[in-house]
């Protein structure tokens, strides 16, 4: 008799869609000679002094649990970092939790705040975890779509139009994954006015703060009136090239902190001791390395944006993160077809835009966190691919002329 596993599984968990990013990543990993622009992680190895601090802590036998919210020394460094870099002041004793990546921080934020049926506005295209995490916490994700007409930036009006009497919170992510768009301080002030008026909670995912190329990054918690209602999420994965360390953090008013800490205590206990030692070093001494990584990404961004536009794929210039999100509409293919055929025909892995929400259809996400040589080869292959579909820079220029 077939075992009735269906009967054991949670309906909410069963209803979750598997991540569309992983599907392409797994397919690409099973093929030879693939250039992957698929997965969003730095191509740099974590700076040596960070690794060394962790090795040293192991040699010294620092293998016990730490305090639940993390080592006080690390929480103090995090508060120094937040105040000196972004001008937001927190108390290391009762406002900071060191988490297992920004991923756990977002999970804690929703689990601590949502009741069954609460609506959470998610600005799309969006990072694939947001909607599932809202759903797992009993909430209802509500998409607010953006488009390249406004550089994929959400406006205060779009937010207001999506608000109902069930709306509890909004998740903001700037710089954004997958579009790379960045909200300026002026944008944030406009958005803050609506948030204040409708008394919303904000989860601000600032994981790409260190990867801002043209304008200074502005933390949402620094906007007047927002500190009290913002759960700030950040971490080490992207800016410090520490994805595999799984270290992030939360900063929030004490009232949120206390509830999130209870959940963290029961589910996680604490982030790994030896890795937190490395994170202390990251915040104390590695800004030169972070800056040199940022400069390298900026050069690659400029190259990729220019090359894609030249070959006939419209691509806005993202202000941050390490993704471009070009339109592939000129090929007449859906984003899924484009990604699949490009992989099969030219062995370049990209992510179809629709996995980031309906408004991502017609786009692909390419991560440029890979070597310049690989990027140049990938661009050559993409050009050949779209030419095989009858698209070229010349035909695009013709279209513009005849419009
Ligand atoms: N938030 C965004 C927007 C991301 O793109 C990612 C990872 O891709 C995360 C959060 C998760 O970060 P972490 O590795 O710190 O869990």
List its salient traits:
globular, three-stranded antiparallel β-sheet, seven-stranded mixed β-sheet, Aspartate Aminotransferase, domain 1, single chain, Aspartate Aminotransferase, domain 2, alpha/beta, binds pyridoxal-5'-phosphate, 403 residues, disordered C terminus
Q: Quick one: how many beta strands? A: 12
Which ligands, by name, code or SMILES, are bound? Answer: pyridoxal-5'-phosphate
Radius of gyration: 22 Å
CATH topology of the largest domain: Aspartate Aminotransferase, domain 2
- CATH class call of the largest domain: Alpha Beta
Task: Give the biggest sheet.
Answer: 7 strands, mixed
Oligomeric description of these chains: single chain
- Whole-number count of domains: 2
What is the CATH architecture annotation of the largest domain?
Answer: 3-Layer(aba) Sandwich
Counted by DSSP, the helix tally is 15
- The order of strands across the largest sheet is 2-8-7-6-5-3-4
Helical content (DSSP H or I, runs of 4+): 40-55%
Distance between the termini: 65 Å
What is the H/E order?
HHHEHHEHEHEHEHEEEHHHEHEEEHH
Tell me the structural class.
alpha/beta
CATH fourth-tier homologous superfamily of the largest domain? Type I PLP-dependent aspartate aminotransferase-like (Major domain)
Mean pLDDT, as a whole number?
A: 94
How much β-strand is present in the residues? 5-15%
What overall geometry do the principal axes of the alpha carbons give? globular
């Amino acid at each position: 008799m077939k075992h009735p596993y269906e009967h054991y599984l949670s309906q909410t968990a069963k209803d979750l869609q598997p991540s569309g990013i992983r599907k392409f990543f797994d397919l690409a990993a099973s093929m030879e000679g693939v250039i992957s622009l698929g997965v969003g992680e730095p191509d740099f190895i974590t700076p040596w002094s960070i690794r060394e601090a962790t090795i040293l802590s192991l040699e010294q036998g620092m293998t016990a649990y730490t305090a639940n919210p993390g080592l006080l020394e690390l929480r103090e460094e995090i508060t120094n970092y937040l105040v000196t870099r972004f001008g937001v002041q927190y108390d290391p004793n009762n406002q900071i939790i060191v988490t297992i990546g920004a991923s756990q921080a977002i999970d804690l934020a929703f689990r601590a705040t949502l009741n069954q049926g609460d609506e959470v506005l998610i600005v799309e295209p969006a990072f694939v975890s947001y909607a599932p995490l809202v759903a797992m916490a009993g909430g209802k994700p509500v998409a607010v779509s953006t488009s390249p007409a406004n550089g994929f930036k959400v406006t205060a009006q779009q937010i207001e139009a999506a608000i109902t009497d069930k709306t509890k919170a909004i998740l903001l992510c700037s710089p954004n994954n997958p579009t790379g768009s960045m909200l300026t301080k002026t944008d944030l002030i406009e958005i803050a006015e609506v948030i204040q008026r409708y008394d919303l909670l904000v989860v601000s995912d600032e994981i790409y703060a260190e990867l801002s190329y043209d304008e200074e990054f502005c933390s949402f918690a620094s906007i007047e009136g927002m500190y009290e209602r913002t759960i700030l999420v950040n971490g080490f994965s992207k800016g410090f090239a520490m994805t595999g360390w799984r270290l992030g953090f939360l900063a929030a008013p004490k009232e949120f902190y206390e509830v999130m800490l209870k959940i963290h205590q029961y589910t996680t206990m604490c982030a790994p001791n030896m890795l937190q030692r490395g994170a202390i070093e990251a915040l104390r001494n590695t800004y030169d390395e972070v800056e040199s990584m940022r400069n390298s990404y900026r050069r690659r961004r400029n190259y990729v944006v220019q090359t894609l536009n030249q070959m006939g794929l419209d691509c806005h210039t993202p202000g941050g993160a390490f993704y471009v999100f070009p339109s592939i509409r000129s090929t007449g293919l859906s984003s899924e077809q484009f990604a699949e055929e490009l992989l099969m025909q030219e062995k370049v892995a990209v992510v179809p835009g629709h996995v980031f929400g309906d408004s991502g259809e017609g786009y692909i996400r390419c991560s440029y966190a890979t070597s310049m040589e690989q990027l140049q080869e990938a661009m050559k292959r993409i050009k050949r691919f779209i030419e095989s579909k009858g698209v070229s820079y010349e035909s695009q220029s013709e279209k513009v002329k005849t419009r």
